[in-house]
Every structure is written in C-alpha cells, then in structure tokens.
Amino acid sequence: MSAVSNIEKVHEVSKESKMPESVPSHLKELFDRAGVGMTIEQRNSICGMLKKHADTFSKNEQDIGRAGFIRHNIPTGEAHPIKQHLRRVPEAMHKEVDWHVKEMLTTIRS
Questions:
Q1: Contact yes or no for 26/60 (Cβ under 8 A)
Q2: DSSP state at residue 93
Q3: Whole-structure pTM value
Q4: Cβ atoms within 10 Å of 43's Cβ, excluding its own
Q5: Dist. CA 53–CA 57, nearest whole Å
Q6: Cα–Cα distance, 38 to 46 (Å, whole number)
Q7: Helices (H) and strands (E) in the chain, counts
Q8: Biggest CA pair distance of the chain
Q9: 62, CA 20 to 30 Å: which among 54, 90, 96, 105?
Q10: Residue 104: what pLDDT?
Q11: Where would I find the H helices in the chain?
Q12: In this predicted model, what pLDDT tens digit does every residue of 41-83 receive, in sequence order?
C-alpha cells in the first residue's frame, strides 16, 4: 500500500456556508482571507467577532477615527526634549500631498 492511498477525500464546501450574509460589507474581504482552511464553526466564530467589533475597522481610506481615550507615555530617562526643523516634502510629491489634503478636508466638512 502506497502513501498516496492514505489521502482522505476533501469535500467541497458550498458557497452558502462559506460566506454568512451577516458579515459587514467592509469586512467581507478580511473574512474571506481569515477563514481560509477553517471549519464552518470557526468561520462562524470569526463572523461573530467581526460583527461585534465592526465599528473598530475603518470602512474606507478616509475613515481613520481617533482614540482619545488612550494616553501614551514614552520613557526618555533624563534626556531633554529636542527641537528639529520640519522636513520639506519632495517637489515630485507636491501634487499627491495636495490631493490627500483636499480629500481629508472634504471628509471633515461632510
């Protein structure tokens, strides 16, 4: 008996069981990538977690949110603060920077 004969058959999973309809639309790609190779029960568990925490994930590039409830402390020992000059944006990137700034301002005003 060869080692090849010990391989078990893999059953194809139907599309209905692959994607629960309750996964938020902005998290469907994440759900697909996270659920590769998992059982239906594991995928349902991931679906529940994504639904519960859906507002934690940004919906698009402009949905960056903020976390004002966290305060960070960076231990610097006895070192004094230093002041550095601003660094210029390379001229080749000016149009792209302007576009991003306009996008952010549009998002803020909406």
A1: yes
A2: G
A3: 0.49
A4: 22
A5: 7
A6: 10
A7: 4, 0
A8: 74
A9: 90
A10: 82
A11: 15-18, 28-34, 40-52, 94-109
A12: 999 999 999 999 988 888 887 777 777 788 888 898 999 888 9
- State both tokens at 59: 């919906």
- Report how far Cα 103 is from the mean position of its chain's Cα atoms: 20
Domain residue limits, the chain: 12-62+95-110
Q: What is the CA radius of gyration of the chain?
A: 24
CA–CA gap between residue 105 and residue 62 (Å, rounded): 10
Handedness of CA 45, 46, 50, 51 (dihedral sign): negative
Q: Which amino acid is at 20?
A: P
The amino acid at residue 63 is D
- The pair of structure tokens assigned to 47 is 């679906």
Q: Say if residue 13's pLDDT is above 80.
A: no
Q: Identify the burial level of 47 via C-beta atoms within 10 angstroms of its C-beta, where 0-12 means exposed, 13-18 middle and 19 or more buried.
A: buried
Question: pLDDT, tens digit, for every residue of 24-49?
Answer: 888 999 999 988 999 999 999 999 99
